[in-house]
Design goal:
The chain is an alpha+beta fold and 155 residues long. The chain has a single domain (7-153), classed as Nuclear Transport Factor 2, Chain: A (Roll), CATH 3.10.450. Helices cover 32% and strands 47% of the residues. It is built from five helices and six strands, in the order ααβαβαββββα. It has helices spanning 7-29, 32-37, 56-59, 66-77, 150-153, and strands at 39-49, 61-64, 82-94, 99-111, 114-129, 132-147. β4 and β5 form a beta hairpin. The mean pLDDT is 90.
């Protein structure tokens, strides 16, 4: 990272961090149109679980497009009573073609008295569009879980 950060760089970094935050609020508020809007229509979103977690096989996959992602989240979240997505540290690196952001995440998923909590990072590649920054690729890298994955997997 350059020590010569300009005002436009700071503005871009702030807009990118705000976009990731808006995504989490949209998830927890069930605002699926907003969920879709933070991604490009050809975005790829991939779930990656550390190899030691056997439940990762049930969540592994790639979703293409912001609307498809929002529809999948809507279907999964319809079974849940509550969620809360908490963000930690974020780094943003501006590139010649856009930006890359890494953001720590802890996600709480609850149904009745059961829960499934996950922790890891969002690894996002972003592009500037006429509507502002959008995520063009996300790897959701899960490093730990607690509780039962059936909270989000069971019908």
């Amino acid at each position: 990272m350059s020590d010569n950060i300009t005002v436009p760089d700071l503005q871009d970094r702030n807009e990118i961090a705000s976009l990731v935050t808006a995504y989490c609020f949209a998830l927890d508020r069930r605002d699926f149109a907003r969920v879709a809007s933070v991604f490009t229509e050809d975005a790829e979103v991939r779930n990656v679980f550390d190899p030691y977690m056997p439940e990762g096989e049930k969540f592994t996959g790639v979703t293409a497009g912001g609307r498809a992602l929002a529809d999948g989240v809507r279907q999964m979240f319809s079974k849940l009573d509550a969620t809360q997505h908490l963000l930690g540290a974020t780094t943003v690196e501006l590139t010649d073609t856009g930006a890359h952001a890494s953001t720590q995440i802890v996600a709480h998923h609850h149904r009745g008295s059961e829960y499934y909590h996950t922790g890891g990072t969002y690894e996002d590649d972003l592009v500037r569009t006429p509507d502002g920054w959008r995520i063009s690729r996300r790897d959701l890298c899960i490093n730990w879980t607690t509780g039962t994955p059936d909270v989000v997997l069971a019908p």
